[in-house]
Give the backbone structure.
Amino acid sequence: MILDKKIVTQLEHKLKQKITDITPLSGGCISSAYKLKLNDKRKLFLKYNTSASNKMFITEAHGLQELNKSAAMRVPEVIMYEILFCLNIFHKEIRVKYFLVNLEEVLL
């Protein structure tokens, strides 16, 4: 899925940075995912869904922020979120399997 130009413009305005590269990522079944490269060389991870419920990304962002506070495991830092998206720092080394194994350990 190609990322909507309106979202790109909105992100650039809020980040005060130009997005220089957008790479679609695979693996998600509910939302589209993208790796964004910014003019200042930062890499961000964007989850985007035009049919997301009003609370989906807000709840996800709050959950990531709470997990981050616990320092029990490494989770992506939330940069910003709205109804249609959640934007995080991109960490190549964070893998879903690692996340799920550590999440299970924390919850048990």
Remarks:
- Confidence is low (pLDDT under 50) at residues 94-106.
- The chain has three helices and five strands.
- The radius of gyration is 14 Å.
- The longest helix spans residues 56-70.
